[in-house]
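Two entries, shown back to back:
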Amino acid sequence: MPWNDKHSFRDCPWCGLRNTRLTVANTDQKFSTRTGTARYWATLGCPGCGGAVALEHSAPQDEDDTVFLAVPKGLEESAAINHVPDDVQQYFMDAIRVLSIGVPDAAVVQLRRTLEAAAAHFQIREKVLMRSIEKLISEGYVTKSFEPALHHIRAVGNVGAHASDERVNQETAERALRFTTQLLRNLFEVPGELQLISAKSGNLVSQRKH
């Protein structure tokens, strides 16, 4: 089946322009793996920022018109984290969405809320976020070396939340997003993956005994 132009309607992973029609430069670009398997690609461009996007799609002779892979990934997909509680995830994804459309002030406020919600998941609900950060560290959930990153998230969140001449730029918000992503990986993803490994190991031991 030939390339279907419906795949050109998507969010730009570079500037976050929503549901736009990317300009199709070419399709059915064939590249072979070292084993001789063929892969087909289309190259598209964003009319807003000029960023290029590569889509791996079905072969022209296939009966379907599937897109298997997009490069680069969008912010939401790139920042996907496993085992994050729903309440924390909601604030985190809201931050990514508003950042992708160029509203860094709103994004850092949501990141600050993400940090508050993450602390609350460990029964840390201090009235002042600074105290919650200190407790996360003193109780061993976060290492002392990561403390400046947490205070950065808190500080820029405060700037974003208050009306003043000081504004949060995109670069600062993206840095806060990276810090928050790492925090959530440490607090939830790594322990969650370790639990899965432990459960699988336990099942293997049980099977061997039988």
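entry 2 starts here
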Amino acid sequence: MTLTEKQKNLLQWIVKEVRAGNLKEDSIWYIRNLTDYGWVDYKGSDSWPPFTFATFDILEEYGYIKWQQKSQNQYKGTLTGKAYEAVDSNFDEPDRSAIPHLIPLTEVEHLDSELWERLLFSVSAGGDNPKAWDTAIRNATVVLEDRMRKLGNIDNINQKATGNGIVNLIFGSNKSVQKDKLPSEELEAYRDLYSGTMKLFRNRYAHRFIDPKPEEGGEIIVFINLLLKMLDNLDWETKNENT
């Protein structure tokens, strides 16, 4: 069992006010009656979060507050060290500071422009439609293959330049486009990466209907977008070496 957000907010508020000297750590007293209600001897001006007396019972159950006395309309207790530890650790919540760095990966304006142009029509059919994602991934793998052709200046008529064949023409160990531009281990890694992508995604989606789950479709698109960026970086490095 874990605290709800309202329960966490109340404990965070109490700890904050105790640290500010606005509440007494060993005499946290709340009274509610027909004419008045509030925190006894509260010296602050901050408004407290909404709660019920049942919330006080939950905080005691977790060991955050020890009530010395309580009745139907009043609670008086002492804050425990465990309360400070819970608040300071954000209730042991995982660090989410990486999330802002992940969000751009899924924003349209960060996608490869050609990739998005080819996906726009199909995904406009509906984000929850597996058939739309099937078409989107199929188009994305064609964009990837076409980008490899451009990187290697490979003629479309060349019968070897399809699927895994085009990968070997660019990243193979024998007279490939990138052979003298990359260390052998890195060249092999590129070949394995793009060859695997062709086999797992290009070939599968080219020959039959897969209709993936929308979340899987989105992940594949983002992955292919990364592969396109990697190809563009190789192309940029090659052009700058020749200038």
